[in-house]
Amino acid sequence: MKKKGLNFTVNGRAETIDVTPRTRLLDALRVDLGLIGTKEGCGTGDCGSCTVLLDGNAVNSCMVLALQAEGREITTIEGLGKPGALDPVQQAMVQCGGIQCGFCTPGMVLSLKDLFNRNPEPDEEEVRVAISSNLCRCTGYTKIFDAARALRDRTLDTQAANGNDDAIGARMVRTDAVEKVTGSAVYAEDVRLPRMVYGALVRSPFPHATILSIDTSAAVNHPAVRAVVTGRDIEMGYYGYELQDQRVFALEKVRYLGEPVAAVAADTPDAAREAAALVKVDYQELPAVFDPEEAMSEDAPLVHEDQNAYQLDWESERKGNLCYRLEFGDGDVEQGFAEADQVVEGTYHTPEAHAGAIEPHSATAMTEPTGRITVWTTTQKPFAVRSYLAKALKRPISTFKVVPTHIGGGFGGKLFPVVEPYVVLLAERAGLPVQMTLSRDEEMAGAMLLRHPSKVRIKTGVMKDGSLVAHQVRMLFNTGAYGPYGPNTAALGSLMAGGPYRIPNLEITGLVTYTNNVPKGSIRCPSGPQMAFAVETHMDKVARAVGMDGLSFRLKNAWEDGDATCTGQPLAAVSLKECLQKAADAVEWDKPCPPGSGKGLACNWWVSGTWGTQTLIETNEDATFRLISGCVDMGTGGLTSSVLQMAAEGLGVPVDSIQLVRGDTDTLPWDHGHGGSRMTFTIARSAYEAALDLKRQLLNEAADRLEAAPDDMALKDGRVFVRGDPSNAIGLAEICYNRHKKHGGPMIGVSSLLDDQPPTTKEHPIGGFPAPSFCAHAVELAVDETTGEIDLKRYAAVHDVGKAVNPTGCEGQIEGGVAMGLGLAMMEELREVDGKVLNPSFADYLLISAEDMPPTQTILVEQPAVDGIMGIKGVGEPPIAPPTGAIANALADALDVDVSRLPLTPEQVSALIAERKT
Tens of pLDDT along 741-785? Predict the structure, then answer.
């Protein structure tokens, strides 16, 4: 296509570039001018991450043709402010904690800039409207509202900086905030390499079919094509998490619609897609099964003919389409039902849901002359990606170097390789760097990015006084065509199946089935929202059966110190009743609601993640320090705040004297990955222990120089001195310089950490977890009975974090989790019919927007854990679970209905109203 000259002004500078009539403004900015701060999250104008100012007005640059900008003025995030000279909007976002993963931040900032240019004193409703087209999956928008309020009220402290004292408990500004708010943070699709080409996948059009033949000749002969690969060209191994049942390409048959069967690399993304369409695959369609109950019938089509070929790390019955079964319990549940005054039953359904990260999956691979392969990717687990690639492609782990980029939201959707194997294979064959980025359609219908849909049957026995005596739960999870995370979801779900309640007789069954649906993954708080909805909605139903309100019933049965989990793990530091009472007080629980309104309450418990890690802290010559961890930060900010705070606390030095080192799997120590609510509980603890190790070395060195005992040494204000004789001292800088330049060499503090699981009395694949955390949420809502719409009046989230190392970070995780949970409760459902996803866009798969987010009160409880260090408990995952139950219970209170299915869309609510009337 013939190119034309485009003359326009970008960030105050006249630019001239050549573009085609089809070139988008987004591509002209990113590709031609290298302005990577403008992001693409959807390509359809639905997410706002590509927002720029066109003649001062906020527009989606993915929806504007480049030639439409002829003679006009464009402002991107790079033109707004720079480190050391931030625009006030950027400064407000930094100081108020309005940044997490940062992928949406440039667009969000520019929308706010447009608003404040037009109206310097907007009210909150005007702020909500102005950014309503900018989706944020991380923050829950609350801190962004705070930033706008501070800007409007002129309460910004332009001199504010991270303090040097009292590292623990300080509201530290995360160290990556400035690069994210200025658009300089590099994400996976921002990677640019010389002679780089682009990959695309050939996907199955059928949910279940035999592959008869693959003809790649037409694609190979395409003039822009550099490589084509299929499963028949390579040696493939099975890989996965607990269940290793997946291969890079379908070989004998396809098991879900969209399963990759080939990959193509070409000079441009468009050429790669064109060539992929030229690959001819002959299929013989097979009968398919999509419903998990039907999948367990004897005559159901088999998704996998030989499950014995797959490694499962846990013992389980596997037959037909059943890929995992878990059964355990306590006491005698049938006897409990016989003794109960009432027995209450219910069945609860939750739909398929998406992780919803705004950044699509992207990766780039480049081969080296030695045969090694470097992979740049957006991943929560770089070392796991290396291991998965080794298993999938049957290579040594040392073949791969993985370079983690900034992550534009993970939420569990970036735990598992999605595009990495394909760019590796294509780069090897092309002899060139290859980048592949999924389209939003591919992302929404992609494997390992979806939450397991569930069907949970519960039967509960209760006495007249509200005491729970028996509880039977049957969980059924649809894992789709492959099940790497199916067993893990069922196992975690079984821990939550009894809720945080004392129940003497318990029977829990978890089933995971294969179907010909898109494979499911391990999404934030796997099984948590599903089980919180089922259990907490059911508990309100039980409470009503014995004439009790939800708060009194929960307070009667809630765990206390000395109780045990369903696996027999002894409990201590249980703050559940405090959380419940504070949540109820926040919504004035005892105050009657007007007609059509209601209040709901839900509580939950969750685990603090462990798994192995190593941290190094090195000295510099001037007594500054380098913290080196193999863990990445998916956007929560824990690595760039609380981990540094803990290291500073351990060393006794200012936070700003410690630099976080970024690297890759060649240069960083091994780590399990970011997920499982482990960042502060485990990674920050490891940093603290490494800091203590280094401090011991520093004190020993000072003791030798000062001719004193190491136990008599103290460190403060950059000096090491003898206790009781502060004049007998030596500067840290002198110690470090001498070690680096004169004798002994640099000092390194080291921590290698892998916690043992707490003891349990029941056999269970997971068993126990240290530092359980507790939470309770409450909501007040009103229902428009003519439309079925729910209006959230106020929301309260109370979380026991053990110790808030960085309160701003804790609040941000809770507020973001609340937003995700509200989405699951009220709007999120990936509709899959006969294996085909019907709503693969942000226009049809709705996320909570700034206009949807209710006024939210976040309350931190600090009941120190007895495990770990400083009483810290995990906070990343728990907030997403209670909203499903809280919203359902408030709706039941408002309408006097039984709620058994999510999401509670206006259509679903209207159906409940109609059912009540009949």
Answer: 999 999 999 999 998 889 999 999 998 999 999 999 999 999 999
| Number of structural domains found in the chain | 4
Domain end among 687, 721, 753: 753
Clarify whether residues 24 and 173 are in a common domain: yes
- Which CATH number do you get for residue 90? 1.10.150.120
Enumerate residue ranges in the chain where pLDDT < 70.
Answer: 158-166
User: In this structure, are 728 and 795 located in the same domain?
Assistant: no
Cβ within 8 Å of residue 790, ≥6 positions away:
781, 782, 783, 826, 887, 891, 904, 906, 909
CA-wise closest residue to 252 among 225, 205, 212: 212
Residue 510 covered by a domain: no
Q: What are phi and psi of 538, to 5 degrees?
A: -65, -40
Helix 732-741 vs helix 685-706: angle between axes, to the nearest 10 degrees? 90
Show the tokens assigned to 612.
């192995």
Query: Exposure of 125 by Cβ count < 10 A (0-12 exposed, 13-18 middle, 19+ buried)?
Result: exposed
Residue 475 placed within a domain: no
Name, in order, each residue with C-beta under 8 angstroms of 47's C-beta and a sequence gap of 6 or more. Answer: 41, 104, 107, 134, 135, 358, 842
Distance CA 94, CA 101 (A): 13
Q: Which helix (H) or strand (E) holds 761?
A: none
pLDDT at 339: 98
Same domain, 562 and 620: no
- Closest C-alpha to 367, from 359, 378, 375: 375
pLDDT given at position 515:
99
Distance CA 690, CA 429 (A): 43
Task: Tell me if 763 is assigned to some domain.
Answer: no
Alpha-helical (H) ranges within 131-262 are 142-153, 177-181, 217-220
What tokens does 394 get? Answer: 């049957």
CA distances from 253 to 302, 521, 835 (A): 12, 21, 15
Tell whether 207 is covered by a domain: yes
Residue 622 near residue 696, CB atoms below 8 Å: no
Q: Does one domain contain both 899 and 863?
A: yes
Q: How far apart are CA 260 and CA 181, in angstroms?
A: 36
Strand order in the sheet with 773-784: 597-606, 773-784, 789-800, 856-861
- Helices in 587-725 by DSSP H: which ranges? 642-651, 685-706
Which CATH number do you get for residue 595? 3.30.365.10
Show the tokens assigned to 540: 């309100």
CB 789 within 8 A of CB 605: no
Most distant CA pair in the chain, distance:
89
Do 139 and 168 lie in one domain? The reply is: yes
The encoded tokens of residue 393 equal 């492609």
Whether residues 274 and 420 fall in one domain: yes
Tokens of 97: 């904690």
Q: Is the separation of the CB atoms in 423 and 373 below 8 Å?
A: no
The CA–CA distances, whole Å, from 90 to 36, 152, 181, 811 equal: 17, 13, 6, 20
209 and 259 co-located in one domain:
yes
Question: What was the pLDDT predicted at 159?
Answer: 47
pLDDT digit string (tens) for 331-386? 999 999 999 999 999 999 999 999 999 999 999 999 999 999 999 999 999 999 99
Angle 645-649-651 from CA coordinates, rounded to 5°: 115
3-state SS of 462-516 is: ECCCCCEEEEEEEEEEEEECCCCCHHHHHHHHHHHCCCCECCCEEEEEEEEEECC
Closest CA to 471 of 456, 484, 458, 483: 458
Domain of residue 874: give its range. Answer: 524-601+769-917
**Identity at 291, one-letter amino acid code:** D
Residue where one domain finishes, among candidates 182, 200, 217? 182
Q: Do 239 and 364 sit in the same domain of this protein?
A: yes
Q: Which of 915, 917, 886 is nearest to 902 (CA)?
A: 886
Please report, in angstroms and rounded to a whole number, the separation of the first and last CA atoms in the chain.
63
pLDDT at residue number 157: 78
The CA-atom distances, in angstroms, between 284 and each of 141, 252, 280, 299 are 49, 11, 13, 20
- Phi and psi at 386, nearest 5°, equal -60, -45
